[in-house]
Amino acid sequence: MTKRLMTFRINGAERTLALEPQAILLDALREDANLTGTKRGCDMGTCGCCAVIVDGVARLACLTLASTVQGREITTIEGVGAGEMDPLQRAFHEEGGSQCGFCTPGFIMTSKALLDHTPDPSEHEIREAISGNMCRCTGYVKIIEAIQRAADERRGAKNPLIHVEGVAP
Amino acid sequence: MKLDPTPRAKDVVAYPDAGTENWEPYRMPLAPGHHPHYPPNGLKLLGKSVPLVDGAAKVTGQAVYTDDIKLPNMVVAKLVRSAKAHARIASIDVSAAEAMPGVVGVLTGLEMRPEQRFGVLPLTKDEHPLALDKVRHIGDPVAIVCAEDEWTAIEAAKAIRVTYEDLPEYLDPAKGLKPVAEKIHAEIGVDGTNVQKYVDQVFGHPEEFLEGGQSALVLRRQFRFKGVTHAFTEPHCVIAHHHPNGRLTVWSATQVPYYVHRALAEVTGLPMHKIQVVRPKVGGGFGGKSDPFGFEMATALLAMKVKRPVKLLFDREESFINNRGRHPTETEMALAFDEAGSITALDIQAVIDGGAFASFGIISTYYNGVLSMGPYKVPNFTYKGRRVYTNHMPSGAMRGHGAVNSRCAVEVLLDEAAEQMGMDPIDLRLRNLMPPYSFTLNDFRITSNGLKECLERVRERSGWDHKLRQLPVGRGIGLGCGFYISGSNLPIHWDIEPRRYPQSTVHIKIDMDAGVTVHTGAAEIGQGSDTVAAMVVAEVLGIDINRVRVYSGNSDTAPIDLGSYSSRVTFMMGNAARKAAEDIRQQLIQAAARKTGQQIEHFVLENERVVSLSNPEFQMSFDEAVKEAIAGSGALVAKGTFISTPMGGKFKGATAGLAPAYSMNAYVAEVDVDIDTGVWRCRKVWAAHDCGKVLNRLSVEGQIEGSIHMGLGQVMTESLEYRLAQLRTSNLLDYKIPTPLEMPEVECILVESNDAEGPFGAKEAGEGPLLPILPAVVNALYDAVGVRLYDLPVTPDRLWAAMQRNGGAKKPAGFRPQPMVRLRGGGEE
To answer: What is the pLDDT, as a whole number, of residue B500?
Structure first.
């Protein structure tokens, strides 16, 4: 099918890509924009590895038609931290929230969207927010701890407390 | 279950004289806090929590996985997969596909030669790159096609016409025990059956205790375990490129680059030195990326044919079809006890559904039996294992390989026996504990054993003594223990004589930049093997870990390591890295002594300096010491190797389950059951694991928490379900993995038994931590609602139905714990 030009704001910069009308955002990011940090785990919205942020909301790139997000602000893992590790990335790294790392970009994008809207989430809110992301390495324990630590740091808490209390009722 | 004896007499192992004299300790344990591997000035780094050395790349999206690699002029491949479960291939018509614009090349099974045969174990090579003459499961690859773009490749794959002649399908492993009309693999299996592996073992005189009056209690139960799969987040991916200079490079998301390397050499006919295997970052393996796979071979052959780089990426369903997950298994187990509660005999019979290929099946079959005795003293033992080929997806090695299902059965039987004998389940296990530094009935050499401490600590931390049978109806607590190998003692080097070659070799190089380069073939798959290598080297050399860079992903530079399976990396590569670093340390100390005129015995390396302990005036920086050592002789190099000690019995199969050390663990799980619906959740797990010595606390905890998650999936929701031969749970919606909402709180209790041979005292923590969670949950559910399910997973509907049959949820009747020791007073709940 004939390609056409589509323009997005990706990680703060305007990008124009030549895409087929039915192009999926995940393919556009990975294959056309060369942003391979967004991972392909299932292509059907079941693993969360491809989560990106579109206009402040976490979305699965594999279930998003690229044409529907033209002109919108898209943030991928490459756009987080601007060359350094931001508090979420540092917390995932230092707390052991990332092992094989394949799910990590998706988790960081999902939890960034959470913290941008809910700076002080309860543990249950964290678990709910990331319940569409699959991690097979960590058992989520250290991921939840990392998000809690990052939330505390982002709010400027002096002594970030890390405590996992178990499943909320 | 009444299994016939193996038809081959040479398969029978009978050791009637095996007995308890083997329980004599053979070596005294090390004093706590001391180890011959410690540097003279003590440990500075090991034991702390160290983030992964490749972690920064992962959290910033810069880590490169196989699918992130694009080569110039690369084409995209797709597999044509069988729609039949068992059929002879009559014809393959590729003409329509080849005629499509954009199609670059096609390869079919009809172009394979019979001798292009491979398989992970040298004894059972039953795979070809593409199905040679017949297909053996739905999804069995029959052809591969590559094109300029993915959509053209998909269309071309659809255009390839395969005609089949149907053969009888074998889906029930029990039917494969008898002679069949058409064996799934003609060349493997005796007497016309589909049995791939028989194991028949008898140690001591189990029959006297299982049937006669010599035991006070004999419990015999049937267990059924569904197949489960690894479900790593990164689907399989491979890229192959045959360079104009004649060399073949294969990038693959594999746990064992060395086995891929060997299989490629066999299949392509190229000598090993003409092949380079590159392992980029791997998005999880758990055993599912440890076989060399047909799709890797087919992609390489296609790349050689079309003379262009070829990439093949699986979709999620293909990763499910490729499987090699935990075997669906029917297990009958009997445990016998004397009046005092000591185990007198263990009897296991297992029919194991192997699926279409052998994979690690010989080992899986043994492990279902031989790893079930430890961590207990079992004076009489018998095992009949049958791994049967079926037309299901091939099973293989998955975290806790072979041991998980039987372990669950043993621990559930122990819980039941404790109740019947009026004993506390923890006390029953303490009574039967295998002592440290002893031998098992089948000649496993047991070294360090911290299980007693594990049991004592979970008892205290969980509040066990005032919870068991004392929580309200619907809430319960249960115990499970585990026992697992720290690497296989027998190195599998394929067809060459294994004992002569090391299990792991590590090279270190230091040049004028004074950075420390470590080369190893141990596969970093997310478990932190690069990090543990860097930590060990930094510890021995007294340097900052950031001075160390680990190169582990390229067969051209990496000395051979058997890869990431059987929980072997920390133990074996860790020891090899330690020895290489000790060699470098000696070179640096010699240089410092030469320069300062002091004696070499007085120098230590710490804080990035080489310091004389007797006279601290004499010291120099690490950089200065390196330059001094290099002067006149060039870059420092060193090599460390690990070959495990010869050990084990002389009988057939004696090497199966032999390991240089064993991890031990005890978990207590607390569960809540909604008694109206059967919906249950695990509230908390107290997980005590004896890993010998914690090297990286962050990684050990991460392995325990991840293992609990994976094991919880098997007992809660995960199951490979078929409709006839068609896998119907082939995606992550239907195959239900616990989400963050199901994951319980975990309290990791790390026990350090200080193993004499493990690096700095360490043993494994990668697979053993999965074993206890299944039985701990099953036993906790019994404590909560009074019904015990012997079939996994325990789905709400099945739990609810069992409660109804039992007259509703209730606390188990007729038993109150009588613990020998009360750790705390009064029931608080």
So the answer is: 80
What residues in B contact A134, CB-CB < 8 Å? 231, 233, 732, 737, 739
CATH class of B406-487+649-818: alpha beta
Give the C-alpha distances (Å, rounded to integers) separating B717 from B319, B709, B720, B732.
19, 11, 10, 12
pLDDT at B11 over 80: no
**Separation in Å, CA of A153 to nearest CA in chain B:** 17
pLDDT class for B649, splitting at 50, 70, 90? Answer: confident
What CATH number does the domain located at A87-154 have?
A: 1.10.150.120
Whether B4 contacts B174, CB under 8 Å: no
Q: From chain B, pick out residues whose CB is under 8 angstroms from the CB of A94.
A: 51
Domain B55-62+502-642 has CATH 3.30.365.10: yes
In this structure, the strands spanning B217-225 and B329-337 are: antiparallel
Structure tokens at B353: 């559904």
Residue spans of the domains in chain B: they are 55-62+502-642, 406-487+649-818
* Domain boundaries along the sequence of chain A: 4-79, 87-154
CB of A117 within 8 A of CB of A53?
A: no
Decide if B310 contacts B302 (C-beta within 8 A): yes
Q: Which residue, A129, A125, A150, A147, is CA-closest to A138? A: A147
Q: Calculate Rg over the CA atoms of chain B.
A: 27
| Measured distance CA(B80)–CA(B229) in Å, rounded | 22
Contact A53, A99 (CB under 8 A): no
Per-residue pLDDT tens over the stretch B773-783: 999 999 999 99
Q: Is B127 helix (H, G, I), strand (E, B) or coil?
A: strand
Closest CA to B232 of A59, A101, A163, A111: A101
Tokens 């029953």 locate to B428
| Structural contact between residues B222 and B1, judged by C-beta atoms closer than 8 angstroms | yes
The structure tokens listed for B421 are: 């004998």
Helix crossing, A141-154 with A104-117: angle to 10°?
40
pLDDT tens-digit profile of A59-110?
999 999 999 999 999 999 999 987 789 999 999 999 999 999 999 999 999 9
Which chain A positions have a beta carbon within 8 Å of B63's beta carbon?
101
Flag if A140 and B709 touch (Cβ within 8 Å): yes
Residue of B nearest to A133 (CA): B739
Rounded Cα–Cα distance for residues B577 and B570 (Å): 10
Whole-structure pTM value? 0.96
Residue B458 and residue B688 in contact, taking contact as beta carbons nearer than 8 Å? yes
Q: Find the range with the poorest average confidence among B13-27, B104-118, B373-387, B797-811.
A: B13-27
Contact B198, B385 (CB under 8 A): yes
User: Domain spanning A4-79 has what CATH number?
Assistant: 3.10.20.30
Residue whose entry in the numeric block shows the structure tokens 């009574």? B431
* CA-based nearest distance B784→chain A, Å: 18
